Amino acid sequence: MDTDRLKEEKQRGISIDIGFAHLDLGPDLRVAFVDVPGHERFIKNMLAGVGGVDMAVLVVAADESIKPQTREHFDICRLLGISRGLVALTKSDLVDADIVDLVKLEVEEFVSGSFLENAPVVAVSSLTGSGLHELRQRLKEIALSVPPRASHHYFRLPIDRAFSLHGFGTVVTGTLLSGTVSVNQEVELHPGGERLRVRGLQVHGETVTRASAGQRTAMNVAGIEPSALARGMSLAEPGRYEATSTIDCVFDLLEGGRELKARAPVHFHAGTAEVEATLARIGSTAPMKPGERAYVRLRLREPLLLLPGDRFIVRRFSPVVTIGGGTVVEIRPPRKASLPRLETLESGPAARRLELLVRESGEGLPMKALVSRTGLREEKIPEAAAGLKRIEAPDAWYVDRQWFEARKEEAQRALKEFHRTAPLQPGMGKEDLRARLFPEAPALLLDALLAETPAVATAGETVRLASHRVALQAEEEEALRKIESTFEEAGLAVPSTQEVLQRSGVEAAKARTLLQMLLRQQRLVRVGEELVFHRTALDRLRQLLAEHRGTRFQVTEFKDWTGVSRKYAIPLLEFLDRQRITRREGEFRLVL
Predict the structure, then answer these.
(1) Do domains 7-144 and 402-465 have the same CATH topology?
(2) Is domain 474-591 annotated with CATH 1.10.10.10?
(3) Residue range 402-465 in CATH 3.30.300.30
(4) How many contiguous H segments (helices) and E segments (strands) does the chain have?
(5) How far apart are CA 295 and CA 252, in angstroms?
(6) 169-178 per-position pLDDT tens digit
(7) Of the four listed, 20, 151, 186, 590, which is most buried by Cβ atoms within 10 Å?
């Protein structure tokens, strides 16, 4: 298969961008090749293709031996954690057997102490075919030892190409890092968040209905133009992840180079993406020494979809060479980093990592956040989070148990203080209580807390201590009776609310509270902003209208029936319309 697709590649006889091929090595074994350019000027293209590989074939020409770019490629493979592979000595037909043996010794010394130590070294010639059978056999042996990719995990595909294909529309390609994707499935673009639909799938040129982790996948997507897509973007399961531009990582600076100063500008490579970034050591302002490992914070110029455990490569700005790489530890770091915290997130058991993230969040975290910030699959979290409190919801919410118990006590103290300052109020509004306890958390957290606190009672949107009872003093009882009787005696020709309160005999604030009590008890009914009627007056009005059921009438007739002025008639009729006792029909109304 010819992996060189660009005109310039064919003219110059070199690889410039990544290319793709595949080889069947058995009935159930297919190897997908990502051919990466070797020239030092195209290392950034090489990095876009090497992120998803399971094994490496280190290619060394027998007539040239190990070149500088070979060393950089090999450093990148080690930094990315590739653990399997072999060495192919190409162009073996161009040199004597002694030279081939000498180059083989040089290669074995070069890979000593690495993942390729003791790996097969196969001399081959693409012209004579020498060694190709052995190469295939070695590839098969190593490929069979590769553990399967995480097909059970959530779908994620870094895009390495995006183009338009006549008759199909927008097509993207990439190596499926995890999960599966099917035709007609919805996927989400990162960064950006656009939702796209998968119209068709191909794996190694064959049309399929489903692609799995580890496969080279071409995806025909609807809902976007190729110009809106670029190498470095990712597709993922909708609503599962968010792109980030600040990450905390463990970072290895390669030996043999220069020290790395604080806040150094660098090129950051992860998956198929390359962005500019600044790198700062955590816990120290001292420069990093070659060969040193440290926790660092990377601030990316553009957001990327990254998860804990993702590997990355860092290249210096000038000269542009690979200087190190590492692993993402935290994708939503706090403003101030802590080394013990990062040690827990990097290597601590899942239970400790979950507890740390939830406790420091204060108000807890939803399942979605725990998945994206730990890289764990959703069904693995309940067991690991057994030490936390789970609140059932469409997206389960986890909180620290001690924090939750403390909020229960705080809620009771808040209600006790409220009852002390407002003894005539039946209770505190739920939203007021939530704003006081945890303003940033969803309402489901307060509902769970109230449901588990027997000392607290809830009625609609009002919360009170279960022991609280409104107890009126003698003057308040008298004022309450006075307010109610004034409205009751007035019938439909009620005085203004302000006038009634002023005559109640208690201070204005207390009189308004007493009025609210009567309204809550539905002994009084508010008809308009300034009009309040006694319940009995409105009951008599309903009975009067019942005698005219089916009658169409105007405002003047209503005034005659009730004996009220227009000042009361219009608000009362609007109230009756809302209550579906009457219905307005132009200038008339109909008694229902």
Answers:
(1) no
(2) yes
(3) no
(4) 18, 32
(5) 9
(6) 899 999 898 8
(7) 20
